Amino acid sequence: MRNSSESVADLPQGQNAYDRLLEDIRLGVLLPGARLREVELAARLGISRTPVREALRRLEADGLVEHLPRQGASLRRLGYAEVMELYEMRAVLEGTAARLAARAASDLELHELSEINAAMTASDVPTEVARLNRQFHTSLINAAKNRYLQSAIGAMARTLLILGQSTLYDPARSTSAAQEHDLLLRALHARDGERAEELMRAHIEAAHRIRLRQLRAAGLMDGIEPNGGNNVAI
């Protein structure tokens, strides 16, 4: 057990290490199955092993890291069935968020969503488009004003990070996603919760189709049966 002075000193570095490792996972720098050695990570991040260890514990609690016998910590691998289940649940949860936001969002929040989507439409930088897309979805979820829904979506979103880069790195998908956001915004401004939920579900399902297409193109889904019997790193 660490003493109190060590804990206080390492808390900021531990948070920093956690955030930086999350970003590496999001960007695909760390791939499913990657070994996560404390010494190597500490050297790369320029910090001691203690905050790295703390960050790995948090990532394990998030369900992103697993410890394997005689191998140590590694980034989890997701199987076909789990990816299908995650996107199905995302459609349900974010669809619900859109329905609630149609009722609960303030005019200011809806204006902010419109501005974010306009910036997303205007950008041709993949990293910026992906960032704005995350901001759009986060702002909409916050506008739903349901803390339990926010918590559930947050836990699911962390697991989805294992899939790596956003589907919006595909220019065609970034264009269609912004158009889907625009349709959703119209339903939100009209305070039509049922239509907003329907459009959000369709939006998530479109992202799901692109994700599966990308995984197949990368050769990561060969031989996987729809029953999820095989557990393949994707």
Automatic annotation (TrEMBL):
GO molecular function: DNA-binding transcription factor activity; sequence-specific DNA binding
All copies of domain HTH gntR-type, residue ranges: 11-78
InterPro entries: AsnC-type_HTH_dom (IPR000485), GntR_C (IPR011711), TF_FadR/GntR_C (IPR008920), Tscrpt_reg_HTH_GntR (IPR000524), WH-like_DNA-bd_sf (IPR036388), WH_DNA-bd_sf (IPR036390)
The entry's keywords: DNA-binding, Transcription, Transcription regulation
PANTHER family in the record: TRANSCRIPTIONAL REGULATOR, GNTR FAMILY, TRANSCRIPTIONAL REGULATORY PROTEIN
Entry protein name: GntR family transcriptional regulator
Lineage, opening ranks: Bacteria, Pseudomonadati, Pseudomonadota, Alphaproteobacteria, Rhodobacterales
